[in-house]
Amino acid sequence: MPKINRYVDIDTVEREAKKDYIDRHSPFIACADSAKSGEKFAVTVKVGNEYSHPDDFDHFIANVALYNGETLLGRADFVPGTLGGQDAKGQAEVVFNIVPTTKKLKLVAQSYCTKHGVWESDPVAVTVE
Ligand SMILES: [Fe+2]
């Protein structure tokens, strides 16, 4: 079982290297506050808010997954080089188009770095009408 690293607000971190390390591994969820039951709802997950992660053959973001609570909704896998290779300036970013059928969603994203393990976002609550 891999260790799960949880996001820490980088404004509370003093060392620049540590801010970079936390930010570039952490998935960030962007979506509307509410969704309509039975209709398509877009959830964007981007790895790294201010910093980008390397995309080397021995060190890259291998997947991005989206959960509702403990239930896996979807996962996107990457191969190294997709995001620009060694000189990558891009960030892994995935749009999950889901169709909610429950009254609310508790979205949590995870990203997996081949060198630094699993990283988890803060949960995002969405009401479903
Ligand atoms: Fe890494």
Q: What would your notes on this structure say?
A:
The protein has one helix at residues 16-25; strands at residues 4-6, 27-30, 34-35, 41-47, 61-68, 71-77, 93-98, 104-113, 117-120, 124-128. It has 129 residues and is mainly beta. The radius of gyration is 15 Å and the shape is globular. It has a single domain (4-128), classed as Immunoglobulin-like (Sandwich), CATH 2.60.40.730. The chain has one helix and ten strands, in the order βαβββββββββ. Strands 1, 3, 5, 6, 8, 9 and 10 form a seven-stranded mixed beta sheet that branches.
What is the element layout, followed by pairings?
Layout: E1 4-6, H1 16-25, E2 27-30, E3 34-35, E4 41-47, E5 61-68, E6 71-77, E7 93-98, E8 104-113, E9 117-120, E10 124-128
The chain binds fe (ii) ion (FE2).
